[in-house]
Amino acid sequence: MTATDSSRTEAVADDPPRPGLSPLIGWRERLAAAVFPAPATSAGPRRTGRFLLAFLAATAYLLLIPAGRTRLNHVWAEDGARFLVDALTQPFGTTLITPYGGYSHSVPRLAAGLVALLPLPWAAAALAISAAALRAGIALLVFTASRGVLRSTPIRVALAALVIVIPAGNWETINNLTNLHWFVLYGAFWVLLWRPAHRWQQVLTAVVLFLASTTSPIALILTPLAVARFALPRRDWWGGCGFLAGLLLQALAVLGSTRTPYSDAPADLPAAAVSALVRGPLSAVAGPEWAMTLYQRFHLLAAVAALLVVVVLVVPALAPGLAPRRFLAVAALVCAAVSMGLELVMNWTPVLHVDAPGVLGAGQRYSAAPCLFLLAAVAAGVDALRGRRLIPVVRVAVALVLLAGVAHQYRTPYGRLGGVPWGQTVADATIACAQGQPEATLRHDPDGWYFPLPCPLP
Predict the structure, then answer these.
(1) Are 116 and 86 in contact (CB under 8 A)?
(2) Is residue 177 located within the same domain as residue 274?
C-alpha cells in the first residue's frame, strides 16, 4: 500500500452542506457523498506510461494464452455470421443501427466496421485483436475508476486484472466481440462511479457510457446509478447524459425488433435460482470447472457455502467508514444478483438447468459479469480491513488469486477453437469464386456456423 493510499480519508462531496441551504440541495450533497468518491486527482506522465504498458501487456496476454492464440486464425459465431458479414455487405450507418437478437450492439458493430476495411484474410486476427484490446481497455478503466473508492493499490490491480484472467471468462468470451458486452456492462458500472479530474476524461465517460448502454440491454439495471450522478456538480453530468441517451436508443431498438428465444420451454424459476448460485458465488470462488466438480459432489451445499464465503468477505465493507465503499459493496451485490437473474430468465433453456449434462458448459458466458460484480463487492470488504499486519497477507492473497487465474487459463482446454481455420475457409471461398460461382460460403466456429459473401470477395 502506498503512502497516498494509507493516508486517504473519507470521500466527501465537493463542498459540505452549508447553513441556509435548501433541503433539496442538502439532500443532493448527502447523496453525492454517500455514493460517489471524491474527484480523482490527475495522473502524471509516468503513470500514463505505465497505463500504456499495462494496456499492451493485457492485450498481448489475451492473444498469447492457448485459447487466445486459436482465435487469431478462427472466427467465432456472430463475429462472422452477423457483425462481419453485415459490415462487408451493408452501409456502415445501416449496420450500426441494426438490432440483432432483439437489441443494439454498437461496440461489436463499430469494431467489425473497422475490421471490414482490412483484407478479408486478416479478419480473424483483426477481430481477435480488437476484442482483446477493448477488454484490456475496460480493465484499465476499472483500475482508474476504483481509485476514489478503494484505498489499496494491490486490490485495485487485482480488480483490473480479474477482467483479464477471471476463470468465468475462459470458455466463450476469449477474444470475440460477440460476448464482449458482459465486460462492457461491468466497466460501465465502474465508470458511473468515477469522478474524473479533467474535461477530456469527462467526455470519455460520456462516450464510454453511451456505447455501453447501446451495446448491452442489461445496462438498464445501472439506471439508478446514472440518475444519481445528477446529484453531483454539473461538470460530472457528462457520464449520466451519455448513458441515458444511449439507453433511450437501446430501448427503441428493443421495442422495434423481435427476438427469437433459445427455447420454447418456460423459465423454471426454482431451477434458475439454483443455477444462479452455482454460476455466481460458486463459480466466483472456485472457477466454473471446479464449480462443476464441487456441485456434482456436494450439490447445493457447495453453492451455499460459497455464498457464505462471499458474504463474510463483504461484511467489513458495511461497517462505518468510507461511505462510497459501503455503497460499492451493496450495489455490486445487487448488480450481481439482478444481472444473473435477468440473464438466466431471459435466455432460459433446459440445458441451463444445473443438473443438465456438463452443468456449466452451456451458457458459461452468463457467469462473467455476475462473478465480476461479486468480486468487486469482495474487494470492497477486503479493502475495509485495517491494520498494517494485514497488508502483507492481502498482497500475498491477491498475488495467489491472480497466479491461479493465469495458471488456469494456460492449463484449461476450454475456449480453444479447433474448427476450420480462417485462412483455409477464405482460400476455399476464393477458389469457389474463381470457378464462377455467384457467391462463396465462409465457414467458421463453432461447427455449423457460416455466412455467404457475393463474388468477387472483398
Answers:
(1) no
(2) no
